[in-house]
Amino acid sequence: MANRVQQSQPYALGLFRLVIGLLFACHGAASLFGVLGGAVGGGTVPAGTWPGWYAAVIQLVGGALVALGLGTRTAALLASGSMAYAYFKVHQPEGLFPLQNGGESAALFCWAFLLLVFTGPGALALDRLFRSREERTSDRSEDRTEARGEERREPVGA
Question: Which of 10, 24, 55, 82 is such that its CA lies 20 to 30 A from the CA of 104?
């Protein structure tokens, strides 16, 4: 049983990434385009307003990147930071605990994205597709170097 759970871990992480990214992107789409009920109070966030419009752009773009698994760690770090900012600037002054101040979703998104920064995208991510191409290209160039009898050099600081 433990072996099966271990083998399915990358797929569970990939599904987690996909769901969190889509939910986050929906918040951004609602604020920017008025879909799915619109921004808080209905409608859209006026373009260029601080911090709402910028947060909505981070939500839409960051959520989409995380859902696709493209630049996952960087997008997740930016999304986590934006949710930390939202929690401490908007929600925390209203009360100490998320249940009191309405900041549960900001806190959960913040921690979920921070988890993805450290775990990576899991299975079925575009990051892995591009990385495997880069690794194959790198392996081929190393093979050619060794075939010519040249010594392989390690990068500085490796």
Answer: 10
